[in-house]
Every structure is written in structure tokens, then in C-alpha cells.
Amino acid sequence: MQMIKNKILPLLLAILLASGDLPITPAAAGTADWEQRAAALEASQDWPELLKHAFRWTRATPADYRAWFTMGQAQQQLHLHEQAEGSYRQALRLNDGLTAGWFHLGVLLREKGEYEEAATANLRVLELAPEMTVARYNLGVIHERLKQPEQALATYRQITKQDPEFAPAWHNLGAILGNRGQLPEAINAFRRAAELAPDNPQTWLALATAYRATGQDAETEQALERLQQLDPELAREFTRKQ
Length: 242
Description:
The chain is mainly α and about 240 residues long.
């Protein structure tokens, strides 16, 4: 029953919004009022109510980019991805310098496999906010999806220098180095990732694999022991393949 509800809810919301049955709040409410209500709904993660609120907001002040961005956020959380993409694009038409809009648009484009445009969106984020590590990381992932390992490698290396506490970049750096046969450097990257995110079983699996490939039996067993604690099934799969 819950699964059916989860599937039907976005459809019902889409129909409701398309029909125009929601009452329109007067524009005189003021931007601060709209923003405060949106912030409260977002904090409580009441996405259906936020969607209805954003719909009213866009009807009341259609030239306000914040209304469209809020609409996109609610739609994205409710898995209305096509609608969310349209809302983010409208927000960006109204404000090309909206960093969060470019970021979320890039996420949606990457998820639907439109990697070239997703890369463009993330590059725009980095123009606006060069320190935004997660956007640079997303760009690295896109390079990998586009079969551009050299660009991905350079991107992950840049992240490890710019934000050395960002564990996913160390993990992905290790994976690329391992695929290139640079196992000692890959092990160092995986070790750093494990230090920063010790509860990630995929990193311990990668470490165990790299240790085994380099004949470091004691280190392999230590990594496997930690993997067993975190994900016994993954540990058994590793053991079966050896």
C-alpha cells in the first residue's frame, strides 16, 4: 500500500497543479513572507505543502526566481524530475547567477544521462563558486561517465588539494589509479579515503583488493576484517572471488 501511495502522490500533485485548483495568495504578501513560509516547510520536509506554496508563489510573482527555484526543490524531492528541471531552468532564465539553480539542474541532467549539458551546468557552478567541492566532484564523475579518465583524474587530484578532507574524491582517485595499474598510489588514496570515511564498505573492499593484488596478505586481512564488520555480504563476495 505504501509503495502505491508513493507512486500515486506525485501524479496527483502534478494533476492538481496543472488544473489550477489551488488558491492564489495575493502578491501583496511580500517576498519575505513567501521566503519565510518556504523555509519553514523545507525545514519540516513537508514537500507536498512546499510544492503547493511554491505554486502559489509563482502565480503571485512569476518574475521572482526564488519562487521557481523553490518549486524546483519541492518537485525534485517528490521525484517530479521533469517538472523540477523546467522550474530550475525558469529560475535561471530570471537569474543566470543562481549557483544553487545550476547545481541542482546539473544533478538532474547527470541522473538522466545528459552528461555534456550536466558538465556545462557544473562548470557554471564553479565559475560562480570555485570553492564548491561537490560541484567539482560531480564534474569528475561526469568525466568518468563520458569515458574521459584523464580529465576525471585531474579533477579528483585538484579536489584532494583544494579540499583534502573530501573522502569521495580520494576514493575515486584511488579507483582510477588502480585501473591504470598504479597500485601503490591507489592504496595511498584508498587509505586516505578510509581515514576520512571509515564506515564506507566500498573503500575497504577497494583496499582489500589492492592489497591482495600487491601481495600484502596481512594488510588484506585487516581490510577484510573491517569490511566484514561493515558489510558481511560484500566481505563474503570478496572471499569467494579469491
